[in-house]
Amino acid sequence: MELFYASSGQIDRAAGRIRLDGDEFHHLSRVLRKKKSERIRVTDGCGLHLDVCITDVGKSALEGEITAMRQVPAPSSAVTVAISLLKAPQRFELFLEKATELGVSAVIPMITARTVAQPPGERIAKRLVRWRSIMLSAARQSGRYYLPVIGEPLAFRNAVALQGYDCRLIPYELSERSSGGVAVTGGKTLFLIGGEGGFTPEEVRLAREAGFTEISFGLSILRAETAGIFAVSLVRARLLEQDVGEWL
Predict the structure, then answer these.
(1) Is 45 within 8 Å of 10 (Cβ atoms)?
(2) Alpha carbons 107 and 148: distance in angstroms, whole number
(3) Res. 183 pLDDT band, cuts 50 70 90
(4) Pairwise CA distance, residues 137 & 93, whole Å
(5) H or E element: which one contains 171?
(6) Are 106 and 150 contacting, i.e. CB atoms less than 8 angstroms apart?
(7) SS3 state of residue 83
(8) What pLDDT sits at residue 168?
(9) What is the pTM of this model?
(10) What pLDDT digit, counting tens, does each position of 56-72 carry?
């Protein structure tokens, strides 16, 4: 059964009621043609699982009765990818979609020395709306109870200074250290992914000095969006190898 998303303001726990409008309402009523008395699953994107029976489908909103409610435990593993903004917006959006499906916890758009695309603030605000919509759609498709987070772009120096991670990695094409020898399961992992042209030697040096581990994704040079997708896939594959009973 497909999963739908509601903000906390749309959920009345005390009354056992829910009201969906906007994009979720459009998808439910216009695309899936949901009717009164049908049942759907809803989450707030923070682990809440609701079983809902539709009681009314109006012109601009859908209302339902909450028949069951529980909290889904948060995954013990979390992957954050700080990735350079890319010249082609569709390539960055492809990364967001696939990384969300694979279980990324957070994405940090990054500006590096070789970042070509550096849109002004007002354009970033519009892109954030679109990026979050893409990630929401991918999360709905893959049935995620915890929505990934994406924030405003961060300068490379600020990304390197981020703390609170158990493992901090910088894939670099000139590295001789295979990713196969690095423990990237359990806890919180942060990857730094460069854009067109990769990282400069100075950026790699700064990352090393900040405590990042330099690794290689193999001999072939990957596009930035492919490297970002591979990073999330790497952690998920390790979890599957260990037969961990959860995904990211």
Answers:
(1) no
(2) 7
(3) low
(4) 12
(5) strand 167-171
(6) yes
(7) strand
(8) 95
(9) 0.90
(10) 999 999 999 999 999 99
Q: Percentages helix, strand, coil for the chain, rounded to the nearest 5?
A: 35, 30, 35
Q: Is the pLDDT reported for residue 201 higher than 70?
A: yes
Tokens of 198: 């990769």
The encoded tokens of residue 105 equal 């916890």
Q: Please enumerate in sequence order all residues whose Cβ is within 8 A of that of 161, keeping only pairs 6 or more positions apart, or say none.
A: 210
Give the DSSP per-residue string, 107-167: EEEEE-TT------HHHHHHHHHHHHHHHHHHHHHHT-SB--EE-S-EEHHHHHT----SE
| Structure tokens that stand for 10 in this block | 């749309």
Residue recorded with tokens 């949901």: 34
* Residue 82 β-bridge partners: 108, 192
pLDDT in the model for residue 185: 59
- Total H helices, total E strands in the chain: 6, 13
Angle (nearest 5°) at CA 108 between 104 and 113: 135
C-alpha to C-alpha distance for 215 and 145, rounded to whole angstroms = 31
Query: Residue 119: is its pLDDT beyond 80?
Result: no
> Is the model's pLDDT at 46 over the cut of 90?
yes
Confidence grade of residue 236 (pLDDT, cut at 50, 70, 90)? confident
Residue 231 structure tokens: 């990073």
88, two tokens: 């082609």
Q: How far is CA 42 from CA 47, 99, 139, in A?
A: 10, 22, 12
User: 185 with 242: CB under 8 angstroms?
Assistant: yes
Is residue 193 classed as helix, strand or coil in its secondary structure? Answer: strand
Of 9-18, 146-155, 179-188, the least confident: 179-188
